[in-house]
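ESCALATION

Customer reports they have been waiting on this structure for their group meeting. Please prioritize. Original submission:
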Amino acid sequence: MKNSILRGVTLVWVLLAFASVAAPAYAAEFRAGAFAQPITPTKFPAPVNGNMKGAFAKDVHDPMHARCLALFDGKTELVFCIVDACLIPRDICERTKQIASEKTGIPAAHILISATHTHSAAAMTPAFQSDPDPEYVAALPERIAQGIVQAHANLEPAEIGWGLGKDPTQLFNRRWFVKEGETYENPFGSKADRARMNPGYQNPAVTKSIGPVDPTVAVLAVRSSTDKRPLAFFANYGLHYVGGYPAISADYFAAFAEEIGARLKAGDARYKNKPPFLGAMTNGTSGDVNNVNFAGPAPGPRQAGEQILVVAKSVAEAAMKAYDQIQFRPHVTLDALAADIELAVRKASPEELKRAREVLETTPKDNDGQYSNQSAIYAREAVLLDAYPDRVPVKLQALRIGDLSIAAIPCEVFVDIGFDLKKRTPFRQHFTVSLANGYNGYLPTTEHHHYGGYETWRARSSYLEVDAAAKITTHLAGMLAELQKRAGQ
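Update from on-call: job pushed to the front of the queue and completed.
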C-alpha cells in the first residue's frame, strides 16, 4: 500500500513536470483594443503653442483626441497613446501612466504616450511665450488615462501585422547651409551659424539642405481575428506638421486617420455595434523636416487646411500600399523597457545671463504684452532656463512587437538619429517615435550643433547638452539589445 502511494505521488510529479515543460507559459490568444478619448478644451479662447508668440484659438475646427491602442499577448500588455498635442510634458505623462496603471494593472513602463506635434492644439506645457490653461492641464491626466482604460477594456481576439511604405514627396529638410561669404545674425548677436532654418523660397544666400529626410511610412495594423474587421491602424512618418487652420485642429495627423478609416471601410454598417475603428499617426524623426520645398518657387494662395488634406491623402496612399502587403499574424510576443538617463542642461554663462537681463530691461513689449524681438525672446528663455536644474532626467523607452522594434524619445528628433537606430537595432524592422513620454526640446546631433541654427539655439525648446543625441542613441541601442536577449530566453 505504501509503495503504491509513493508510485502515485511520483506519477503526479512526473505529469506536473511534463506539463510545466510542454504547456506554454501564457495563453496563446493575442488580443487588441482601441479607443479615441476626446480631450478638446471647452473653455475659449484656448492657449495654443507652437510659435514664439503665444496664440489663442477661439473655436474648434476638428477635435483633439488621445488615440489609445492596447495589445496583449496573453502575458504582456503594451499601450500606445498618441495625443493630439504640440508638446506633452513629462509630468502629464507620468501622472497619466500612474492612473492608468492603477486601474488596469499595466506597468507604466509598458505605456507609450506621445504628442503628434500639431501646432494648432490646446497648449499643455509652456513654450516660448505661450502658457497653458492650468485648469485644462490639471484635468488632462485623468482624461487621457480614461482612454487607456477603455482601450484595455475593449481587448478582443485579434491579429496583428506591420510593414513599410514610402512617401518622399511630402518631406523637405528645412535646414540649409549658408553660402560661403554670407552671414546672418542669430538672437545672441553672433554671425557664426552655418545653418539656417526655413531660409525662404530660392534664397540666394543658402546653398543646399544639410540633412536627409526619411520617406518611410511605417504601418502597424490590428484586426479582429473573428470577423476580420479593422480595429486600429497606426502609422509613423517623419514630418514635423503641416498647419493651416486658425482654430483648434489635430492637423494632418487626424486627417490621415480619417482617410485610412475611409479606405478600410471601417465605418461599414456591419460594425455599428462594435468598438469604433481607430486610426493614428505618430511623429517620426522630423526635428529637421517640414512640408515646405524652399528649393522651388513660392506656391500660390491656398485655402485653409488645403495642404493638410493633400499630405494626408498622399501619405495614406503609401500607407495602404504597405498595408496591402501585410501578412497578419495570429500571435506575437510583446516586451518593453523604459529608463531615465540624466543629461546636462545648456545654460547661459554669467556674462550671457547678464546680457540677457539687460536686453529684457531695454526692449519694450508689444501691445499684447509679449516680445516680437527675437533677441528679447531668447533673452527671456535664458533667464527661465537658468532656473532649471543642471541635469535633467530624460525618459527613454524601447518596445518589441515580434521582430519589430520601436524606440521612443522625448524630443524633436533629427532624421540622422532615426537612421542610426535603424542600423543598430537587432530586429528586422524599426521606427522611432518622437515627442514621447515628455518633452526635452530639440535633439540635434553633435555635428548639427556645430552648424548652429534655430534648432540648436539655447532655449526651453533646445537645452540638452551638445552630445545628448549620441548618449541617447547608445543607451537605446543597449535597451534594444536587451529586448533581443529577453526574446531569446
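Sent to customer with the following note: Residues 338 and 397 are 4 Å apart (CA to CA).
Escalation resolved.
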